[in-house]
């Protein structure tokens, strides 16, 4: 076994241990003995990831290893998990996406991150929306400040235009076209009395990077003593932080890594048949963190097929256009901004549709072609899932 193969085996062994340990601590905190084991496991992951991060930046001028936070690389003013570096958007796109994210924040002292597919834009080429995740850190915010910040977003009349506020863990929602003082009072009640901690703000904006699209900020209100519980709503390994005051958690936390890997395994299986594009995205994330490089070309080729990320991006915007067309806003300024957004959204959809393959009368129908492709992807995802599980299992025995 050469040095590269040995490091891959070590990585799979460590991450396999994380995946096996995580379910045992779903509803309880580790005791002293378990904490000692987890600390040792974290130290091993940090040491290996520091080495891999150094190797990852060789082909990326301007990138530097973040020694303060093992596993992260600093590039273009963001922190990138080393295994996502190859998927990062270009410098111009990243600068624009960073600027949009900062404009969506609820807090000044928290950390906002590019999340999910947005962090993979360099490889996917197309995304249906722009995802962010914000961590509001303990002792840096009050309920009154959060509500005031939400209110300022809800009533703004310029881009990014906020269309909806949701409280995910209590299922409360309010459209911004209907926002008034009673909505602010209800949100205050949700946070102070009902324990709301997981907010979601849906915006619509226009950008050079992806055209007109929905931009979503998922906000986690971290409370002292309950950070572990709240942080289960997201995964650091799929996020690219735009540096703030501090990072809310280490990238190398064994239980978080284990939960993320198990989440991806379950998601690939769940979506393989019903939503092959989403299944492919989850598979790409799993392949990156496990470093199953033999799957690089296949997964990227499938995702860059017009029937994958591109078709998904068109469908997401078509749904958004339907939603915006049904909105009646009583604010003249917001109504004018919505009108402009609908116009640019139509242009984005037309531009994306022009890149889709044209089917002739003698060729298979679009629906038949998609069904055939989906079946092919399902087989590939099933094989990938088997390889991933076998790789983890094999590493555990070495």
Task: Give a quick precis of the structure.
The chain is of the alpha+beta class. It has helices at residues 3-21, 32-56, 91-103, 121-124, 143-154, 181-192, 227-230, 254-274, 276-290, 296-303, 306-325, 332-353, 366-396, and strands spanning 64-65, 72-75, 78-81, 111-115, 129-136, 161-167, 172-175, 198-207, 211-221, 239-242.
Question: What distinguishing features does this structure have?
Answer:
398 residues, three-stranded antiparallel sheet, 13 helices, 10 strands, alpha+beta
What does this protein look like?
- By secondary structure, the chain is of the alpha+beta class.
- The protein has one domain.
- Helices cover 52% and strands 15% of the residues.
- It is built from 13 helices and ten strands.
- It has a seven-stranded mixed sheet with strand order 7-6-8-9-5-4-10, with helices on both faces. The chain has a three-stranded antiparallel sheet with strand order 1-2-3.
- Strand 1 and strand 2 form a beta hairpin.
- Helix 1 runs antiparallel to helix 2 and helix 5 runs antiparallel to helix 6.
- The longest helix is centred in the last third of the chain and has 31 residues.
- The chain is globular and about 70 Å long.
- The chain starts with a helix and ends with a helix.
Q: What is the helix/strand order?
A: HHEEEHEHEHEEHEEHEHHHHHH
Give the overall silhouette: globular
Low-confidence stretches: none
* Helix count from the secondary structure assignment: 13
Please outline the major beta sheet.
7 strands, mixed
Task: Give the amount of beta strand, in percent.
Answer: 5-15%
How many domains comprise the coordinates? 1
Helix content percent band: 40-55%
Biggest sheet strand order reads 7-6-8-9-5-4-10
Termini separation: 12 Å
